[in-house]
Amino acid sequence: MNAYLLFIVSFMILAWGVESYVSLLNLRALHPELPREFSDTFDAASYAKSQEYTRIGSRFGLIASSVELVVLLAFIFLGGFPVVDSIAKSFGFGNIITGLLFFAILSLLDGIVGLPFSIYRTFVIETRYGFNKTTPLTFVMDRLKGMLLGVVIGGPLMAAVLWFFEATGPAAWLYAWATVTVVSLALQYLMPKYILPLFNSFTPLPKGPLRTAIHDYAESVGFLANDLFMIDGSKRSSKANAFFTGFGKKKRIALFDTLIDKLSTEEIVAVVAHEVGHSACGHILKLFLLSTLRTGATFLLLSLFLNAEGLYQAFGMQSQSIYAGFVFFMLLLHPFSLLISLGTQTLSRRFEFQADAFAARTTQTPGALISGLKKLSVTNLANLTPHPAYVRLHYSHPPLLQRIRAIQGVDV
């Protein structure tokens, strides 16, 4: 077996094995007894329901990941990549358009494989536990809009990157890095006003006690948000959330309508304070810079492997092409990406602790943040006792029990 293929396939199977084992550890970590910190929020029935939701979701995830691995391995060993390449070339276009067709066909095939699992998760599992509000029409439209955005934004961007690597020589990775960085930065400004509203309705938060309380808090910490919005998250799910997006004058705080329905004004202000904390502590900028550096390193490494003949032979390709090299390199890079993600997740969890501390100090009401987080955990059927290994691998936020104890230790 080709050395590149042996490495890629071995680590695919290893990664699947590790993730499956960690998922099983997480299932075994489900405790029958409710942690005492949640005795005022969960009753026996809701706690049992949250554990059952975790159990069902984890088992379904194991099945989905196993099927997807088998399909990918079959695709590789049955010569799927050369077939897709020949289909893309059959239209007779130049290398760049052919490359875009190659990416589009692979993306379509990936979507087809994942679609049954997405449908089952949305319309069976999420419905069974009272979360799903998505209609079949909304489900279809979300995917069509996502595909359209991929064509409108991703198409020209990928065409530019392909052209750089085809026409500009050794400095191609720098041009590609700069272009992707500029587009990513532009999207930070475009997302709040033009892209997110394609999927959800953003309505200004009505005047009243809640808007006044949020405005007064934001003013007290010198945070100038351009807009306060309510988002119709309830049209897809009964889960509650809030988020902050945008840079500079385009900053936007969005509260799910489900959040507004379930939390008190004081608790919502505390949740907003947490989101403001991410901005005040520079987390958004730091994560953007980290992502930018990672993108640059990826393009640099890509430039070193694009001419590796063995990489193309590993997948049965009769000729080398930049667009196929992109895909094969990403498969080669996958195990290293998983390792990098461990560091990124660790940093993200640290940022969440910092944002919690910021919210507790600036609102002077740590109890409101704790009670709000507890209510959200009931609403979202959160796993209260995740295994530490599962947390390290998958959690961008610390487990709720750790967050509560950290907030209780904040000096206000």
Descriptive terms for the model:
metal-binding, Peptidase_M48, metalloprotease, mainly alpha, STE24 endopeptidase, 412 residues, single chain, Peptidase_M48_N, globular
Secondary structure layout:
Layout: H1 3-28, H2 44-77, H3 80-89, H4 95-128, H5 136-167, H6 172-195, E1 202-204, H7 209-220, E2 227-231, E3 242-245, E4 252-256, H8 257-262, H9 265-280, H10 283-305, H11 309-313, H12 322-363, H13 366-379, H14 388-394, H15 400-408
Parallel strand pairs: 2-4
Antiparallel strand pairs: 1-2, 3-4
Helix pairs in contact: 1-2, 1-12, 1-14, 2-4, 3-4, 4-5, 4-12, 5-6, 6-10, 7-9, 9-12, 9-13, 10-12, 13-15
Please tell me about this protein's structure:
Residues 207-409 form the Peptidase M48 domain. InterPro entries: CAXX_Prtase_1 (IPR027057), Peptidase_M48 (IPR001915), Peptidase_M48_N (IPR032456). The chain crosses the membrane at residues 6-27, 60-84, 96-123, 144-165, 171-191, 287-308, 320-342. The mean pLDDT is 93. The chain has one domain. The chain is built from 15 helices and 4 strands. It has a 4-stranded mixed beta sheet with strand order 1-2-4-3. It is 71% helix and 4% strand. It is mainly α. The longest helix is centred in the last third of the chain and has 42 residues, at 322-363. The radius of gyration is 23 Å and the shape is globular. Strand 3 and strand 4 form a beta hairpin.
